[in-house]
Amino acid sequence: MQNTTDFVVDPGGSLQGRVRVPGDKSISHRSIMLGSLAEGTTRVSGFLEGEDSLATLRAFRSMGVEIEGPEEGRVTIHGVGMRGLKQPDGPLDLGNSGTSMRLLAGLLAGQGLELELTGDESLSSRPMRRVTEPLARMGADIETTEAGTAPLRIHPVEKLHGIHYELPVASAQVKSAVLLAGLYAEGETCVTEPAPTRDHTERMLRGFGYEVRREGSRICLDGGGRLTACDIDVPADISSAAFFLVGASIAPGSELVLEHVGMNPTRDGVVTILRLMGADIEVENPRDVGGEPVADLRVRHAPLHGIEIPEELVPLAIDEFPALFVAAACAEGETVLTGAEELRVKESDRIQVMADGLRVLGVEAEPTPDGIRIRGGSLGGGEVLSHGDHRIAMSFAMAALRASGTIRIKDCDNVNTSFPGFAGLAAGAGLKIEVLRG
Ligand code: S3P
Fold it and tell me: Is 319 a catalytic residue?
């Protein structure tokens, strides 16, 4: 499908009021996956009605799971049990969603079904061997293209067996793929992570009554268990809140409250990094919602300064770097990011694409193999390319708050993968954004 939507954002303004961004994408995907395999009826509220999580929902529908909704974030899943999935009529099209493809590769490896997983151009160029290799060690039979990319062809196998796997990259998707395959494996499956990554899979498995053990950096489970349906309240996605945290921080006169934001400690690196840069973010009403920490975040404009971003924070803010680069462009001095080569294999090469766009706006940005150096300064206007990457598009939209000219961002349709309604919500808070459909 051709991307035809551009954002045109006039310079200046500030962000005010209270905003609740849509539900967490990672948790929404997992709620469909585990709810489908559970015994009983799972009721989800706050579900993200974005293209990515809808791709997961449709995939399970086409494998015979009855799913009602989504309607205003409410989804009811009539679980079919661990062995209840059915052969779909054709390939499972997962669109732009890396999380769907990688987690499903693991979850579906031991189903005894003949399956094909496909995606759009961006997803079909992303590395999949990182999941198919450990899954092959478990006995799975999954074909990739010669380049190690989708489409993935999953062939039935007699059985899977547990492995102990050391993750070569800090990736929650790979960890989750192996653990989800482990549900169907004989014996124990363990994954050791080189650095903490988002732990929604482990938390949600426990919520569905499945025992998951963690000792230090090692996470283990035994195959052959069952999942019991439960209710899930999905918090607002901190990755979507990040655009507003940055926007309000950089725009003079801003004061904004972001409501009900997921504050899982494996996800809140963006708050830590912004605070290190001098941001004024208060955490209000911290609470626990269905096993996930949640809070309201009050953010006020504050002068930011450049920092060297501590490498241990990289996996905890992995999706928030496009927005953080905009903060760095508005900060005084230089910001240096290292240890973030993973950014090159996201929905786009986020290091190169952000550097290109920032340069269009007159910012000094120098990409390095594993990061970037950005010298803060004044931002002009211009036309930037999002390369169909939702987070690049939303980041440059926020940059207009501090630009001296209009910013036009090309190819913004994919904002709907993670943040349907972004432009309306941002305009309501004070961003001078217009959506042009070509
Ligand atoms: C995700 C994990 C991260 C993240 C992605 C969602 C998940 O990917 O970038 O948006 O839900 O598990 P990696 O595991 O590739 O770092």
Answer: yes
The total number of residues written for the chain in this structure: 438
Handedness of CA 122, 125, 126, 132 (dihedral sign): positive
Element of type H or E holding 289: strand 280-289
Q: Per DSSP, what are the bridge partners of residue 256? A: 17, 299
Q: Assess contact for 107 and 180: CB atoms under 8 A.
A: yes
Tell me which residue has its CA closest to atom 5 in ligand 1: 99
> Rounded mean pLDDT of 76-103?
98
Burial of 202 (0-12, 13-18, 19+ CB in 10 A): buried
pLDDT of residue 290: 86
Average pLDDT over residues 268-274: 98
Model-wide pTM > 0.85: yes
DSSP sequence for 334-391: EEEE-S-GGGGGSSS-HHHHHHHHHHHTT-EEEEETTEEEEE---B--EEEE-TT-HH
Tens of pLDDT, residue by residue over 300-349, are 999 999 999 999 999 999 999 999 999 999 999 999 999 999 999 999 99
User: Which one of 93, 319, 389, 413 is the catalytic residue?
Assistant: 319
User: Which one, of 289, 327, 286, lies nearest residue 305 by Cα?
Assistant: 327
Is residue 436 within 8 Å of 10, Cβ to Cβ? no
Rounded to 5°, angle at Cα 40 from 205 and 72? 80
Which is the closest atom of ligand 1 to the Cα of 346?
A: 9
Q: pLDDT-derived band of residue 3, with 50, 70 and 90 as boundaries?
A: low
